[in-house]
Design goal:
Strand order of the largest sheet: 6-9-8-7-12-1-13-21-2-22
Radius of gyration: 25 Å
CATH class of the largest domain: Alpha Beta
Number of domains: 2
Structural class: alpha/beta
Helix content: 25-40%
Strand content: 15-25%
Largest sheet: 10 strands, mixed
Shape: globular
Length: about 525
């Protein structure tokens, strides 16, 4: 009898312990909000902290899990490749998004990463889908886990960022038209919703843009050294007024307006099934000016951004409740640097012309192997060879790649040349691994050139001019909300941990293409 009583007590104690353990496991959030801030920089974020209120960035830092040292695991990041990496947990090597644009070998023309002629646009002539995203996203896994009951939406200034965050199974992705200022979507996501039609007709920015003005949001005394530069005022007029708006901090206000309309028109976060909302803001410099030349404007950009983050959290609190919401905030991790005249400072520099380099390469190959257009096309610093011509001449691709790389490496300003063969064989160094992760066998060129840092990339045909910058752009990663205990973590992390971390907190499977573990110390 004593043994039976003791056994029963042990069973009760074990069951009680299990209940206690279960009770401390946080519930799955009703809503997950992923915030990507294009070109957000830690140095600016910290420098302008005195301009912020208590409910935006300061709240995130006080109540969130803050990872201070975050990097992408591939080179040549832009807004589309960054967004795709965040939501797939994989690099372009796997997810296929090597950039916002790449060269299409079939047409020999640059294509946008979300172009798809099979689907019509609503409020736009652009045909759009996520078909070029080769693997599932976190939001796809959420839809699969909930058998389609989860609601997934993405709102961004640009269609590539909206579509990459929305994934393949979303209920909707919305972006603003460069031409009309109307919010657009694609027939890929079904019929155009009535609430979107009403918003564009009655509350869209096209009805207000003539009266919009970007001026300092705070009193001039709040800014650092305001008297050195004076005030500023920008209006949005002319043929490119909506593009100018999208490059300004006023666009973040429009994103929030659209998110408000989205909540009114849908039941997002309205039940116990976890839903997902992706929001993209912009923190880049206006009119591609350097922050040294527009220091007052940059201060105001971050002050306004803080206000917009606070406004979004206030909206979420009203609609869903912050206690039911999980936030993720991070950056695209790059900056569009304005070309500088380094010669004024006696800093080594130069100009590299990709079109001239490809012309010289083709002449060199002709001298070696006879007449022909060996270089089929180029895009950025990627060179595409004519494989059919090589096959017709019975030339081995690897031999051509090797001699082409040796020739290009002799040109002024060239630091290194990588070949497709190099990437397929693999390498050992961290730098090589980052380059390989930026490569995709179906979309990247046969030859990829690395130009010396501080040089200008020039193209006489397109008149493009870009500064080569290989320095680290510091940016944070923050999780705040359901199941998160506040702390600051100085352990370096890569952005491919974001999707697995969110999957862990949402209690779903991580995307199939991701391989990184969740961020360290996320549960404590």
């Amino acid at each position: 009898m004593k043994e039976k009583i003791l056994s029963s007590l042990l069973t009760v104690l074990a069951f009680s312990a299990l209940q206690a353990q279960t009770s401390v496991v946080p519930a799955s959030p009703r809503l997950v909000v992923g915030i990507t801030i294009d070109q957000l920089r830690s140095d600016h974020l910290e420098a302008f902290f005195n301009l912020y209120g208590e409910q935006g960035f300061k709240r995130l830092w006080k109540d969130g899990k803050v990872y201070e040292q975050v990097v992408y695991n591939f080179k040549h990041v832009d807004r589309a490749s960054a967004q795709a990496s965040i939501y797939t947990g994989a690099s372009p090597f796997k997810n296929g998004i090597i950039g916002t644009q790449w060269m299409d070998r079939a047409s020999l023309r640059p294509v946008n990463c979300v172009d798809d002629r099979e689907f019509l646009g609503y409020y736009t002539e652009e045909c759009t889908s996520p078909k070029n995203l080769l693997i599932p996203t976190l939001t796809d896994e959420l839809e699969i886990a909930t058998r389609g009951d989860a609601k997934v939406y993405a709102v961004a200034p640009h269609r590539d960022m909206a579509v990459m965050a929305a994934g393949h199974t979303a209920d909707g992705a919305y972006w603003m038209s460069d031409e009309t200022g109307e919010w657009c979507t694609s027939s890929y996501y079904g019929d155009c919703p009535r609430w979107l039609e009403r918003y564009n007709d009655k509350d869209g920015v096209a009805t207000r843009i003539n009266g919009l003005q970007w001026e300092p949001m705070l009193p001039m005394s709040a800014y650092d050294n305001p008297t050195d530069e004076g005030s500023f005022s920008y209006g949005f007029i002319g043929d490119y007024r909506f593009r100018k708006l999208k490059a300004s901090p006023c666009m973040n206000d429009e994103v929030n307006r659209m998110v408000t309309a989205l909540f009114k028109g849908t039941s997002l976060g309205g039940d116990e099934v976890t839903d997902f909302l992706s929001v993209t803001y912009n923190a880049g410099s206006y009119q591609s000016e350097s922050w040294h030349e527009s220091y007052l404007e940059m201060q105001d950009i971050y002050a306004r951004l803080d206000k917009d983050v606070a406004s979004l959290m206030e909206l979420i609190d009203k609609e869903v409740g912050l206690e039911n919401t999980l936030f993720m905030v991070t950056s695209t991790g790059y900056t569009d640097y304005v070309p500088l005249d380094y010669t004024l400072y006696r800093v080594p520099t130069g100009e590299f012309y990709i079109n001239r380099a490809t012309a010289l390469l083709n002449m060199y190959l002709m001298a070696l192997y006879g007449e022909g257009q060996y270089v089929e096309a180029y895009h950025g610093l990627q060179i595409y060879l004519d494989h059919d011509l090589l096959e017709k001449k019975e030339l081995r691709l690897n031999d051509i790649l090797e001699c082409s790389a040796e020739f290009l490496a002799e040109l002024s300003g060239v630091q290194k040349v990588y070949t497709a063969h190099d990437f397929l064989l693999g390498g050992m160094s961290d730098e090589f691994e980052q380059m390989r992760n930026a490569y995709n066998v179906h979309r990247s060129g046969d030859l990829i050139i690395e130009v010396n840092a501080g040089w200008k990339l020039m193209n006489t045909e397109s008149r493009d001019e870009k500064l080569v910058y290989d320095g680290h752009v510091a940016f944070p990663l923050v999780f705040m909300g359901t199941g998160i205990e506040p702390s600051v973590v100085d352990t370096p992390v890569t952005t491919d941990c974001i999707a697995p971390t969110l999957a862990l907190l949402m209690r779903i499977r991580a995307p199939s293409g991701s391989h990184a573990p969740p961020a360290p110390a996320i549960r404590r």
